[in-house]
Amino acid sequence: MDERGPSSRPDEDGVSLGRTVRIQDVAKLADVSTATVSRALASPERVSPEARARVLEAIAKTGYVPNPAARSLRSQKTYMVLVVLPDLSNTFFSKILRGIEERLFEAGYGMIISDLDGSPEKEAHFAAFTAAGRVDGAILLNGHLFGQSRDGEGMPMKTGIPLVALCEAIPSADIPQIEIDNRAAASRMTQHLASLGHRSIAYVSGPPNNILERERFLGYREGLEASGLRFDPALVLPGDYTIASGIMAGQNLAALATCPTAVFCTSDEMAIGLMRTLLSEGLRVPEDISVAGFDDIEFAAVAEPALTTIRQPRRELGQAAAAVLIDLLQGRPSPKRIRLETELVVRDSVAPPQNREKAPAKSIRTIAMKPT
Amino acid sequence: MDERGPSSRPDEDGVSLGRTVRIQDVAKLADVSTATVSRALASPERVSPEARARVLEAIAKTGYVPNPAARSLRSQKTYMVLVVLPDLSNTFFSKILRGIEERLFEAGYGMIISDLDGSPEKEAHFAAFTAAGRVDGAILLNGHLFGQSRDGEGMPMKTGIPLVALCEAIPSADIPQIEIDNRAAASRMTQHLASLGHRSIAYVSGPPNNILERERFLGYREGLEASGLRFDPALVLPGDYTIASGIMAGQNLAALATCPTAVFCTSDEMAIGLMRTLLSEGLRVPEDISVAGFDDIEFAAVAEPALTTIRQPRRELGQAAAAVLIDLLQGRPSPKRIRLETELVVRDSVAPPQNREKAPAKSIRTIAMKPT
DNA sequence: AGTTCTGATGTAATCGTTTACATGGCCGCA
DNA sequence: TGCGGCCATGTAAACGATTACATCAGAACT
User: Which nucleotides of chain C have an atom under 7 angstroms from any protein CB?
Assistant: First the structure.
């Protein structure tokens, strides 16, 4: 019945606390009412300096820590935030998470993580989770609202708590969006490739129906157009942002009738997987084919060759989302949309195209001398 | 005062709920007492089938979700678990996290994450967190107990809640440990290198005072000894498991008077960073120098060359830790220590040493033909 | 038939806060 | 001096569940 019995000896400072320290104990010791103790903590300016000092002293003496359950029960606030994401083990998200955690921590909020893992069952569970009032707000990285019933796509979740969409905008929902301009970034990369002389630029896509993917694909086409290149559907290879899909795309690419001189992968994972395949197929990057990525994950800089990519400020994205949510939670006005800057990071995996049909692989080295 | 006002229209199923559905509402609808409703949920066998059916129906009709704060206040259980880790953005941890989350979810527990980020301030905060009873238990990935006061190393945290140490054993604490045999694994890799003919094997360490590091270092020395090789302190390069430290170690390595023929890096991140540096220094892997890693992260297989490493079953480690903690929380007996198997994954970054002093780099290719 | 036990249910106390409302003292203004 | 207002504080009613204890009906045994 009472498992904590044996360990309930006097704790630190010689103050023996029979059990848990309650606000009453503090009140008694400070010779004030519980209301004053509560106020001294929540809104110090509403308590006289002397009373406050006594309360603080009593708290220090007893080691009092407010009981969150009781606090939450009464005040309807949990100081907890739910973060929903599709895949916790993905490098891309974990860096963002860190940004989120930082800000939340500063503001005194805890972070509960839900790895959706593609399971609708989990979605339902976490919809209930929010409904039960276990969290004050949520940050959604999964690109859609969960708990959407019959109405399918169109029906936003009515949780009644503040929500923020991070990275993947949620079109039908009227909630703040924190994101980058995926379209502009993709367009820029495409134009970068084109400006180096590439005329045949393949594209490795993200998962279908993904908002990110739609935007990036639009950017790709825009970039082609802006560079006066024709869009060729045959050069669009399916992917899903994973290393494995990059490897697959590499195989598909190598099997293409006329191999393009450049590939734009919409994630670094795919780019790295793809380079790997290309390399083992005997193609060299960037001499035979240029490869570009997206995200600038840690490994992009140490890939071989180092990956040219688009940097997303992941930590900052997380921080911004958390900041907006906190504003919302605390009733402050907050921007409806934040777009953070991306950056084109030029490394070694992209180079001007070289005429590889004319010579066997070995002699290419001489051609490579050309640039000055 | 009441922000939810405007959105409080009838919800689903046409059942209009003025505000939140309470257990009383369910009780009234099912024509039983609140106690029966509570029991129907917590211990169905203690309620008659008819009553249970009525309760369940009423719950379905009203969409009742128990209020966690109230439940927690009364029952002293939160159904929340704290996971403490040193760096959330690290690939290695995030895969483990996923394993943890899976198991916790199945058992109905939520996961709160604390990214320690090397900040003692945060440790204090989370010590208070557990003390306040916000979680029922914790999984520690950080290798020590927080909240250790004056006594320094030796004083285990007295939180009064079940704890489990994952990966990094906590020597002074009497809590279950889930881990791999780091020492045996490191020894095995060292012997693997030696068995290929390497006589001079460098070691890139983890952070000092880290338990993992200590074990792996012991394994390294053991492996050397078992292979009849002498330990040379000059071949131990400092690292901290990060890519950056691997890059640094690569520079130090290249600067060494007599370059070893093999390097054992105690993390894949370091191995990949190190290979990168080596490559740009003009050394080839594995022809000039073999590189081995530890962990088998996703990128190990697609590194160039593909990394020979030790596979840690990360997801399983997370699952096992969660399972043990759940046992503990539910009063079941649980193992005091679980050691999961590692696996030596042989890829391309390790090869027998080749005599590189006799010939200039170019002609090495002929030597490389040797293997049949 | 009387007693005891068991199983299903209800009643109401309890968990530890926050906070609406009441109180009382003090200041300043007329 | 009297009165409105403000400030600091106290009192006590929530918040919404769990659960110890009481109750009661019926079964089973002597």
Answer: 7-12, 14-20
